[in-house]
Write a structure and sequence with these properties.
Shape: globular
Order of helices and strands: EEEEEEEEEEE
Number of strands: 11
Structural class: mainly beta
Strand content: over 45%
Distance between the termini: 40 Å
Number of helices: 0
Helix content: under 10%
Amino acid sequence: QVQLVESGGGLVQAGGSLRLSCAASGPLFSSYAMGWFRQAPGKERELVASISWSGGDTHYAESVKGRFTISRDNAKNTVYLQMNSLKPEDTGVYYCAARRRPWAGSRWYPTEDIRLYDHWGPGTQVTVSS
């Protein structure tokens, strides 16, 4: 069983930057595609960014494209989300999630369906002030 713990959230002024980290424990981290989701109060959880097993493929929500960057370091069992040019609408709880590769030769594709992610971290709060 893989366990995920997010860190790096906090309060930042609009236009500023934050870097979130997600530390994973458990075997075969490279067999999991990773995603970052966020949820504002009263709203549904939404996909922010996702990354393939090797890190060679990424996908971003249109609202964050050009501002956020997802990356992973499989040697450190960690996935990152660099957030630049933050806006008040970026405020929310950010969750790290892992999706198991179905089989060794399966092809990666981005998905925003939270039901397809197998493991979740407890979340970290990001607040952007105007």
